[in-house]
């Protein structure tokens, strides 16, 4: 150490000690509570629906195609309605995913778009086909960079308390691209076995089984009969029926839809986070379809599950309530 630094350091230490000692005797506590470090939503959940979450898909376009407007509206909605977390149903980054956890697209298409305080909650994502364009695992690794991006693996599950007395919702997040295109190296059969087991092992207090993936099993958009839709339907329908899955929530089609084909499972598409594609009316198994920018809002209690579709102007386009 140079002499000059030694003198400076010694002087500061002596000065510090002489200031800190009297302050400590004056202060009642070493902790101050002048600023809140609590990000929790100020809106108390409606007693009727203690568990709420927002679902958005097909969004990452550098704020364009009204991505920013949808994000702003989602922020306003989550600031005025109780919300615990955000689900992303994939196609998180166009056109080809992210190249790494340091890709600037994290800023251009995510962090600097979903800026509202009310959106600084846990995001639970799945991947879409576009996310497979470069490094899909980078989106798992980003969970170590971001406090709010929570993607523990390419597929994973969460049991979430509805409230302390009402049991749980089981959310199962799946990785549909390897299933649709049978990427052998990614062992799609193993994932399907895991899905089957996870649903089979659901604890007795699970009131709702919700599966989240990118590709829809049914749609009234452009992919109504294409390979993707038929392939994922073939892979998942049997498992959904066997375990009485209540809701399958997906994206891929750039619209908002509620579909109820034969069987137990209600299907929702929330893929309107940026660019839009058309929908057609009049299909018997379709209960709601809108080619409008927006997102969905799910509200859950032990006996009922409510779904709202909200557009980029904050208008509620649709509401449905499912009962157990
Ligand atoms: Fe998409
Ligand atoms: Fe897609």
TrEMBL record:
Entry annotated with the keyword Signal: yes
Entry keyword set: Hydrolase, Iron, Metal-binding, Signal
Reported cofactor(s): Fe cation
Domain of life: Bacteria
Enzyme class: hydrolase
Occurrences of domain Calcineurin-like phosphoesterase (ranges): 52-255
Positions contributing to Fe cation 1 binding: 58, 91, 94, 254
A Pfam family recorded for this sequence: Metallophos
Cofactor note: Binds 2 iron ions per subunit.
Catalysed reactions, as listed in the record: a phosphate monoester + H2O = an alcohol + phosphate
Hydrolase in keyword set: yes
Gene3D superfamilies on file: 3.60.21.10
Segments passing through the bilayer: none
A GO term for molecular function: metal ion binding
Residues holding Fe cation 2: 91, 129, 214, 252
Enzyme Commission (EC) number: 3.1.3.2
Protein name: acid phosphatase
């Amino acid at each position: 150490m140079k002499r000059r630094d030694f003198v400076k350091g010694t002087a500061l230490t002596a000065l510090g000690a002489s200031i800190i000692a009297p302050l400590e005797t004056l202060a009642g506590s070493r902790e101050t509570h002048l600023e809140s470090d609590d990000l929790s939503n100020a809106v108390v959940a409606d007693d009727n629906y203690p568990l709420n979450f927002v679902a958005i898909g097909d969004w990452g376009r550098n704020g364009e195609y009204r991505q920013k407007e949808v994000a702003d509206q989602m922020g306003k909605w989550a600031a005025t309605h109780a919300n615990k977390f955000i689900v992303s149903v994939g196609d998180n980054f166009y056109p080809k995913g992210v190249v790494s956890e340091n890709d600037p697209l994290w800023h251009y298409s995510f962090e600097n778009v979903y800026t509202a305080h009310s959106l600084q909650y846990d995001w639970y994502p799945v991947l879409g086909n576009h996310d497979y364009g470069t490094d899909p695992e980078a989106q798992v690794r980003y969970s170590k960079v971001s406090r709010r991006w929570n993607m523990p693996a390419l597929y994973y599950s969460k049991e979430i308390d509805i409230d302390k007395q009402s049991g749980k919702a089981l959310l199962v997040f799946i990785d549909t691209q390897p299933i649709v295109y049978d990427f052998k190296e990614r062992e799609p059969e193993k994932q399907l076995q895991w899905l089957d087991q996870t649903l089979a092992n659901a604890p007795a207090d699970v009131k709702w089984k919700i599966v989240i993936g990118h590709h829809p099993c049914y749609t009234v958009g452009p992919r109504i009969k294409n390979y993707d839709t038929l392939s994922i339907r073939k892979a998942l329908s049997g498992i959904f029926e066997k375990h009485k899955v209540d809701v399958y929530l997906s994206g891929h089609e750039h619209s908002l839809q509620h579909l109820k084909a034969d069987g137990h499972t209600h299907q929702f598409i929330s893929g309107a986070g940026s660019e839009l594609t058309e929908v057609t009316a009049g299909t018997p198994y379709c209960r709601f379809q809108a080619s409008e920018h927006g997102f969905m809002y799910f509200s859950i209690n032990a006996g009922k599950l409510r779904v709202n579709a909200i557009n980029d102007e904050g208008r509620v386009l649709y509401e449905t309530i499912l009962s157990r």
